[in-house]
Write a structure and sequence with these properties.
By secondary structure, the protein is mainly alpha-helical. The chain has helices spanning 3-33, 42-54, 58-84, 89-110, 113-127, 144-159, 165-188, 193-196, 198-213. The longest helix is centred in the first third of the chain and has 31 residues, at 3-33. It starts with a helix and ends in an 8-residue tail after the last helix.
C-alpha cells in the first residue's frame, strides 16, 4: 500500500465527500418540515426570510432566522476549534458533526421537528470548517452558486482557448456532489428522518476517522 499516493488522493476527494453529505442533509431538512426551509443553503433562507418580513409575516420568519443564526453559530464554534486545535481541528470538527447528527435522531423522537432542523443547521455550519483540508481560505461549503459560477468562468476560458479542462471538471463535480447528495437525501426521506440520517451519520464518522488518520500528514492553515 503506497501511502504517499493514497493520502493525497483522500485529501483531494474529501471536499466532494463533504459536499455530498451536505446535499443529503439539506434535502432531509427541507423535506422534514415541508416549508421551504434549508439547513445548509443559507442563500435560499435569506431570500425567504426577507420576503416574509416584507409581508409582515413575523411569526413565520422566526424559524428561518433561527436556522441562519445557528448555522453562523456552527461556523463560529468551528473556527474557535480550528484556532485552539490547529493540528487536530479537522477530525474534531467532523466528530462533533457526527455526534450532532446522531443526537438529531433522538431529538426527533422527543420534541418538535423544528428543533431537529436547528440541530442540523448548527451541524452544517460546523462542517464548513472541515473543507479547509484542501482549500486554504475559508469557503462556504454549501455555496453551490459559487461552484456553478466557477464552472461558467472556466467554460468561457476554455472556449477562448485559455482555460484548464481539469479545473472546469473539478468545479462542476463540486456542484454535482451537492446535487447528487440532495437526490440521495430525497430518496432516503421516503422512509423517515431517523432512517434517512443513518447514511450521512456513517459517512461523517468515516470522514472523521480518515481525518484522524491523516492528522499528521495534513498541514496547518
Amino acid at each position: 500500500m503506497n501511502l504517499s499516493v493514497i493520502k493525497p488522493a483522500i485529501l483531494t476527494a474529501m471536499p466532494f465527500m463533504l459536499l455530498f453529505v451536505a446535499g443529503i442533509i439539506d434535502a432531509i431538512g427541507f423535506i422534514h418540515l415541508k416549508n421551504g426551509l434549508f439547513v445548509s443553503f443559507m442563500s435560499g433562507n435569506t431570500t425567504h426570510v426577507a420576503m416574509l418580513l416584507s409581508s409582515y409575516q413575523y411569526s413565520q420568519s422566526i424559524s428561518y432566522i433561527g436556522v441562519i443564526l445557528l448555522f453562523v453559530s456552527g461556523i463560529t464554534v468551528g473556527e474557535m476549534i480550528a484556532v485552539l486545535q490547529k493540528k487536530n481541528y479537522r477530525w474534531l470538527v467532523m466528530s462533533a458533526v457526527s455526534i450532532l447528527l446522531c443526537s438529531a435522531v433522538f431529538i426527533e423522537q422527543i420534541t418538535i421537528p423544528m428543533v431537529t432542523n436547528f440541530v442540523l443547521a448548527f451541524a452544517m455550519g460546523l462542517q464548513n470548517i472541515a473543507l479547509r483540508i484542501t482549500i486554504s481560505k475559508a469557503m462556504p461549503l454549501t455555496f453551490a452558486t459559487a461552484f456553478l459560477a466557477n464552472t461558467g468562468r472556466e467554460l468561457a476560458m476554455l472556449l477562448l482557448g485559455q482555460g484548464d479542462k481539469n479545473v472546469l471538471i473539478k468545479q462542476f463535480c463540486l456542484w454535482l456532489s451537492i446535487f447528487i447528495g440532495a437526490i440521495v437525501g430525497s430518496q432516503l426521506m421516503v422512509l423517515s428522518i431517523s432512517y434517512a440520517l443513518i447514511i450521512p451519520i456513517l459517512l461523517s464518522w468515516c470522514i472523521a476517522g480518515l481525518l484522524y488518520w491523516l492528522r499528521v500528514f495534513t498541514t496547518n492553515d
